[in-house]
């Protein structure tokens, strides 16, 4: 068990939220740095400065790229260029062309399919190139893999490959549907109406999140007696798969001390049943300040008007959460005898929203 841990959710300033999560933990005289995603390229200087000044090192023991979306993967590139890295963890679909080729009728060779997949997942391909050039080892974070004290809860290899086949990014579609026509039209942003609702009412989207989000790596660790779950942009299928595996690694649900709300608090990633499964059932009323049952952590840019969703904030508060977001500042959670930070302050809980989104 670690003598202390600290988790920093760093700010990602953009019209779209992103993830950049730095973690440090110590056992005896040894300590390690674990980075989860890196936001955008513009986020990299913030991440680099934090690790060098706050953690006092240029060595990162493990970097985990949860999935290939720009707001998670792009910022990892400059970090790979500037730091020493012991192990990198990310999923690369082109490694599985021997399995995937029969599902892509337009391709007759593994090489051509691999080239196309590298184009479709270009941020991951860039990271692979940098890691190979710098001599960093890359590992596949499938369910059951250990990354320091963290265990991967999802995805399984089988579900990941099925998502690659199902993805709208990948090239099994009829020619022209995506590439030729996709750039000609910009779909209007749907208008989501908000309605007032009393305590305990929960309304989540009837639509599921994207296939790419469902590829997200979900990680769990128990540090200083705290269960910690980091979810990336995982959707309902990933969260269900992760929950089913959790007891095998000692995480008995419901109940998580530090829980990252998936996809910046998106309402297509969870629902009432999933929140019940992970966090417990709705409480009779809002808990008083200081008596919350767990910490909910959300990476959400102030510039992003769509995240976090009020329905998600309500669902977390219904189950006793102290909610921290990166909208106004980076935030820091810890366990054990973590070094003091005189320039940090206690953040108040998010106010209970008296309305929620409606389709």
- CATH architecture annotation: 4-Layer Sandwich
Q: Count the beta strands.
A: 16
Total discrete domains = 1
Structural class: alpha/beta
* Number of separate helices: 11
Please, could you describe this protein's structure?
There is one protein chain. This protein is of the alpha/beta class and 359 residues long. The protein has one domain (4-170, 188-337, 348-358): 4-Layer Sandwich (Metallo-beta-lactamase, Chain A). The protein has helices at residues 44-54, 70-73, 76-82, 97-100, 110-120, 122-134, 157-166, 211-214, 236-245, 272-279, 310-318, and strands at residues 4-9, 21-27, 30-36, 59-64, 84-89, 137-139, 146-147, 150-154, 193-196, 218-223, 226-230, 258-260, 294-298, 321-325, 331-336, 355-358. A 7-stranded mixed β-sheet has the order 6-5-4-3-2-1-15, covered by helices on one side. A 7-stranded mixed β-sheet has the order 7-8-10-11-12-13-14. A hairpin with a 2-residue loop joins strand 10 (218-223) and strand 11. Residues 173-187 have low confidence and may be disordered.
């Amino acid at each position: 068990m670690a003598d202390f841990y600290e988790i920093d959710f760093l700010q990602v300033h953009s019209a779209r939220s992103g993830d950049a999560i730095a973690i440090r933990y110590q056992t005896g005289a040894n300590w390690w740095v674990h980075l989860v995603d890196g936001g955008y390229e513009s986020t990299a200087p913030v991440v680099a400065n934090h690790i060098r000044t706050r953690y006092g090192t240029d060595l990162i023991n493990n970097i985990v790229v949860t999935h290939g979306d720009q707001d998670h993967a792009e910022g990892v590139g400059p970090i790979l260029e500037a730091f020493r890295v012991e192990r990198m963890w990310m999923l690369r679909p082109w490694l599985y062309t021997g399995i995937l080729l029969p599902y892509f009728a337009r391709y007759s060779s593994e090489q051509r399919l691999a080239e196309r997949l590298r184009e479709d997942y270009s941020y991951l391909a860039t990271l692979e190139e940098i890691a190979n050039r710098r001599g960093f080892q890359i590992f596949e974070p499938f369910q059951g893999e250990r990354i320091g004290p963290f265990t991967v809860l999802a995805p399984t290899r089988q579900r990941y490959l099925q998502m690659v086949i199902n993805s709208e990014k990948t090239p099994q579609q009829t020619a022209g549907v995506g590439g030729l026509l996709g750039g000609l039209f910009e779909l209007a942003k749907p208008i989501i109406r908000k309605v007032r609702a009393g305590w305990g009412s929960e309304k989540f989207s009837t639509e599921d999140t994207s296939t790419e989000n469902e590829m997200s790596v979900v990680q769990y660790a128990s540090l200083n007696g705290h269960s910690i779950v980091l979810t990336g942009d995982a959707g309902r299928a990933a969260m269900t798969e992760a929950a089913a595996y959790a007891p095998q690694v000692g995480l008995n649900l419901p109940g998580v001390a530090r829980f990252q709300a998936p996809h910046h608090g998106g309402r297509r990633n969870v629902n009432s049943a999933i929140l019940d499964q992970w966090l417990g059932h709705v409480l009779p009323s809002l808990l008083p300040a200081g008596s919350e049952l767990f910490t909910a952590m959300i990476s959400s840019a102030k510039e992003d008007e769509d995240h976090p969703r009020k329905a998600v904030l309500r669902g977390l508060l219904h189950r006793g959460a102290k909610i921290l977001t990166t909208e106004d500042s980076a935030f820091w959670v810890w366990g054990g005898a973590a070094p003091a930070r005189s320039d940090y302050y206690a953040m108040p809980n998010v106010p209970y929203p008296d309305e929620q989104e409606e389709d």
